[in-house]
Specification:
Elements (H helix, E strand, L loop, with lengths): L1 H16 L11 H5 L9 H15 L14
Length: 71
């Protein structure tokens, strides 16, 4: 249930962060530079990386001592 709530909040939040590609823009370039060529370049992968970065750095309701192994 908590996962569904987080998904819903992140999906809604993208509208307020700058649109459909809002999370993709949060991913630092060094992440892609450290991946094998061609890996991590699909839109759903970029979205996942961006959501992970947002969750770790900006998500206000993230429990401070919760595990972060989301991927």
């Amino acid at each position: 249930m908590a996962e569904e709530q987080l998904h819903k909040e992140l999906t809604t939040g993208a509208k307020f962060l700058g649109g459909q590609d809002a999370y993709k823009k949060l991913v630092p370039e060094y992440i892609y530079n450290n991946l094998r060529v061609g890996w991590g370049q699909r839109p759903y992968q970029q979205e996942a990386f961006g959501r992970f970065v947002y969750y770790l750095e900006q998500y206000p309701d993230r429990p401070q001592h919760a595990p972060t192994q989301l991927l």
